[in-house]
Input
Amino acid sequence: MAAPDERPLWQRLGWMAAIWLGSVTLLGAVAFVIRTWLKV
Amino acid sequence: MFEQFDALLLARIQFAFTVSFHFIFPAFSIGLASYLAVLEGLWLKTGKQLYLDLFKYWLKIFAIAFAMGVVSGIVMSYQFGTNWSVFSDIAGPVIGPLMAYEVLTAFFLEAGFLGVMLFGMNKVGRKLHFAATLMVAAGTFISAFWILSVNSWMQTPVGYEIGANGQYLPGESWLEIIFNPSFPYRLVHTVIAAYLTTAFVVGGVGAWHLLRDRTNAHARKMFSMAMWMAAIVAPIQIFAGDLHGLNTLEHQPQKVMAMEGHFDSHPDGAPLILFGIPNSAEKRVDYAIEIPKASSLILKHDLDAPLAGLDTIPDDEEPPVGIVFWSFRIMVGIGFAMLGLGLWSLLARARRRLYDWPMLHRAALVMAPSGFVAVLAGWITTEVGRQPYVIYNLLRTADAASPLDAPAVGASLLAFVVVYFFVFGAGVWYILHLMHKPPHAGEVGVKRGDKGPIRTAGITPGPSQNPGDPDTLPRNHEEATDGR
Output
């Protein structure tokens, strides 16, 4: 398997976008749970 | 259970509790994000493994501190609606957009790219990973920018209009609201405080490991970097704090009167009260130890300059003097102690004893949590000093609370106390657990879960091949770090 720096840019950017989106989604879920708990 | 309590007081205690808990984490993560960016930048520039090791060591700690900061921050923003609905209703058109920018920054810059920082090194490559680290560092600063703009507007409100329904509405220029008179000073003072807080934690952890093993190259490097910060940034912070104080004198004079303990006006130069016990009932400071005219010198740069006291302020406009007086002295005292440690480290450097002076290391260890105490004391000074207003001279705190009964506020306060102590207590314990482990060559970083291929017997994988297995890594610091 190629080292990360040897992979094509589009593949690395794709990973970056996917991880970024997953992180934001996770935080959104946490915020929603807290919102539900506080009954805002 | 809470019937006999005042709902307003409970709401204020609840906000003070949650904001104090919250503030600890961004005060740490703002500085730590920048420290991580510096470490990764140095690793990319020099190629030295030591910087990557330190980056991985602190990244785990950052992730936990950041997560707790975000979660406690979300609770706070919701609390504006639950306990301070009148404030939210009246001030919402002005502060709402600014707080929204803060939340957007926290979500899309900090949290989003934190995922890349934690899990992306083997996916996106070094340069994109560094870009993500820079995004997180920039995000923490931009978050601080927006939230401090909101707070500063509450301290020095300008650029608003009052609508027909009594709401504060944005005037002609948002820039006037964002860059309100106290904002530049508060931003600089608070962000530097966050950097210093992180520096002293890093320095304390480095000192702890130097006390156990003074040859640990990683501990040496982090201690050295932290002491440079203390020596260079602590005096800058004292200067910035002085400017912030002069700005406060101009725009919120009664806060400075409370900080100074000046119950009476001094037409011929005011004394600097070093210590004493403020007696609000008798309107004097008992057992005061003071330097004549020094307060006028500091605040007006003139020994004989007149300074007005709280006797010029109606009683119902006075902030609680005792709290402001003492929290201010705690903050200033710690600031000078930080400067002292920075100067001590310079002396140690000059004598080539920076890594060989146990007393210095013990002092740095004791000072490790000092930044947290200082930022909380500073925050208490500025927030309690604004009382009895929530928006200075416009909206009293007593008029800003939600129309809730005491049992409702008390029950949620109790829930917060219990949940916070369990959740954040566990988080803080784990951070201390991570700090307790010495930094070493081949730091693992955040575990990915993948084990990698099973290797042929007899072949010992090097650090770059198998970063997840510390047992296979060299334990000799000299060997692993080119002798640094």
Observations:
- Residues 450-484 of chain B have pLDDT under 50 and may be disordered.
- Chain B has 15 helices and six strands.
- Residues 182-258+314-326+335-402 of chain B form one domain.
